[in-house]
């Protein structure tokens, strides 16, 4: 991908979007779709903050040039031309980062890459707002990821051993208050595969913990990290997937026909498409149970207008 024109210095008014722009730069080669939407979020947010001050207008103008160049380079990529595909791509990617970090956290493997993954996940959930309001689940994921990044960073900085897993979110903790935790002391690259230990996303249950609901199937995007980074220094055996229990299919769904008085809204169609995307994503990891659950949800929504 061709290099993008450099942006002018970030105006102080735009401090709140600096990490989103850094995340965009980090993903220019790794995932240009993610990079595009990070810049789009920064553009939309910057316009709301200040679009009149000369330095802000100049910055936003250059950022717009970057967006146009990216859109031209990505051409007919469906994740750019179709909102539902772009939304699913971004949400899956954010949840991939979240679940990688959560897996490391629960295993007691605390390192900068997992902090980076938690924090990047929270930033990408911010970016999902370019498609509309966040779901309650994503709001909870963002809050937990940002808090965990702050908590673990501060523990390591102070020479303390963090407590693994959910330990209760402190409401007044905000990673934006700690510049080092946000980016400066973290790796500039997301976790990369190595040969130290295997990470099987399908081995993570779809249940809830600490009030956080993980949407079924959302844990299986195509580029989920397969293994733990070299930097952890931890060696473990590959996680063996447990035998799957396929959920029973409701008999009524075989013969269900959309009733005449059912009126589906554009939002209903978008949710149904997202369920189908999650099902396809789950099938990439042979997670039949999750795929069936999501397809059932899509079918029920389309035939009854209710979830």
From TrEMBL:
Superkingdom of origin: Eukaryota
Low complexity: compositionally biased ranges: 194-217
A Gene Ontology cellular-component term: endosome membrane
Region annotated Disordered, chain positions: 179-246
Keywords from the UniProt entry: Acetylation, Cytoplasm, Endosome, Membrane, Protein transport, Transport
Domain Vta1/callose synthase N-terminal: 16-158
InterPro entries: Vta1-like, Vta1/CALS_N, Vta1/CALS_N_sf, Vta1_C
Membrane topology (UniProt): Peripheral membrane protein
GO terms, biological process: late endosome to vacuole transport via multivesicular body sorting pathway; protein transport
Pfam families named among the record's database cross-references: Vta1, Vta1_C
Keyword Lyase in record: no
Domain Vta1 C-terminal: 266-303
PANTHER family tied to this protein: VACUOLAR PROTEIN SORTING-ASSOCIATED PROTEIN VTA1 HOMOLOG (PTHR46009:SF1)
Record-stated family: Belongs to the VTA1 family.
Protein name: Vacuolar protein sorting-associated protein VTA1 homolog
Species the sequence originates in: Heterocephalus glaber (Naked mole rat)
Gene giving rise to this polypeptide: Vta1
